[in-house]
Amino acid sequence: MNNASISRKRNNDADPIVVGGVTPFTTIDYPRQLATVLFLQGCPWRCHYCHNAKLLDRKESIPVPWVSILDFLQQRGGLIDAVVFSGGEPTLQSGLTDAVRQVKRMGFRVGLHTAGCYPDRLQKLLPGIDWVGLDIKASKKHYAEVTGVRSSGENAWRSARIVVESGVDYEIRTTVHPRLMDRDRMTDLVHELADIQVENYVVQECVQNNCLRPDYRGIENFPFDAGDIDNIARRFARFELRKTD
């Protein structure tokens, strides 16, 4: 997260959302668009490979003032195409709908990165969203092993169905860490994704140098070979493998 010249201050209760960091320019967080990413503070899950640990506690950071973000975006009109709300978990924050409306009124497309923690909130939010990147971390029965939260699988998979049925442009992606994913688990996951008619799927290798759990760092064996990836790709209309190298 690079906050450029955007100043920080202590939380203003009038701000609709708590923003813990900003990436001013990126080409990889919204497909085919130059975007600014807003990292919202707070997440209810504790995924072992999470690389944004400073965003997990909703009150840990000194936030970036919303008025400063709006001023920054106003200056970027014509320079960026989209604003992406990421995290943390952006749907944790009740003011996200208002923040999205303000950004849309400025003429930007709006993207959302979410783990699907709150399916009801996600469903209400989707009419204002142009593109969603939804993290599906495992088959339903293995979800709590990743997140540490018992009900997380039910919520995430309900969110997946909502996104697929919404008509909003999306990608569903899975981060692969070798301690949490093998061929059998991936086979279960792919079957479940196909059952809900996912068309656009991304498998991404875990960046391990800053995992929340120290014992998940520095394990460099990606568990799938080219044949495995081909078998996965055949199940989806669109598929992408994102490696770290």
Q: Which strand order spans the largest sheet, edge to edge or round the barrel?
A: 1-2-3-4-5-6-7-8
Mean pLDDT: 92
Radius of gyration: 18 Å
The fourth-level CATH homologous superfamily is Aldolase class I
Order of helical and strand elements: EEHEHEHEHHEHEHE
**Roughly how much helix do the residues carry, as a percent range?**
25-40%
CATH architecture label name: Alpha-Beta Barrel
Largest sheet: 8 strands, mixed
The helix count comes to 7
What spatial form do the alpha-carbon principal axes imply?
A: globular
Tell me what portion of residues adopts beta-strand conformation. 15-25%
Total domain modules? 1
The strand count comes to 8
Please describe what this structure looks like.
The protein has 245 residues and is of the alpha/beta class. The protein has helices at residues 66-75, 96-105, 119-125, 143-147, 152-166, 183-195, 226-233; strands spanning 19-26, 35-40, 82-87, 109-114, 131-135, 169-176, 200-205, 238-242. It has a single domain (19-242), classed as TIM Barrel (Alpha-Beta Barrel), CATH 3.20.20.70. The chain is built from seven helices and eight strands; from the N terminus they run E-E-H-E-H-E-H-E-H-H-E-H-E-H-E. The protein has an eight-stranded mixed beta sheet. The two termini are 20 Å apart.
